[in-house]
Amino acid sequence: MSTKTVLTIAGAVAVITMIALLFRPPVGNAAPIRAAPSADDGPSAATRTAIFAGGCFWCMEPPFEKLDGVSSVVSGYIGGSVRNPTYEQVSAGRTGHTEAVEITYDPAKVTYAQLLDIFWHNIDPLTANAQFCDRGSQYRSEIFPANAAERAASEASKAAIAAKLKLPVVTEITDATIFFAAEEYHQDYYLKNPIRYKFYRTSCGRDSRLKELWGDAAGIGTTGLLKAN
Known about the structure:
Radius of gyration: 18 Å
Strand order of the largest sheet: 1-9-3-4-2-7-8
Shape: globular
Mean pLDDT: 87
Strand content: 15-25%
């Protein structure tokens, strides 16, 4: 391949990536604080929460919202040093947070291990501080266990994924801290703005990379709880 051809391809990829990034929305208002659950507003005794970061939170909502036993999926921020961060602050990489989703689920219907399986098959666990076209620690993949049992399950699943891929898995495992809900316009973005969402997801190369990594299990995992579209 000639140097001219390589430069032309590189330029085209750069343009597509820039277009995808432009489809990230403008900055909204500050997000409300979501601290540890209370008896009034937290999950009921019959439900639990799981927090996963897999790059753009728009793209991490759909697979979990399709699961029987999941009652809500909230986009937000976790892992940083600033309280009540805004999208502007997080997306600029100034707070240490990463985009994440908080999943409320009924463990009698879907287990934490099954949620982990769905998580792994919706991310690229081999790339540090980035997911697909989104670059920076604010897009790092990360698991936030809430207790020792969840940490043990997370570490076991990470080891299994590394063995399966036969490559080092860089996804971090960090004890959960305060989760801050993102601005309202981010919630269920894929439902509110389906055309913009689809264009962003495709241009960012998410599905093509997932297919490369996971084959037929891309996006749906190996539990049988989700079916290919």
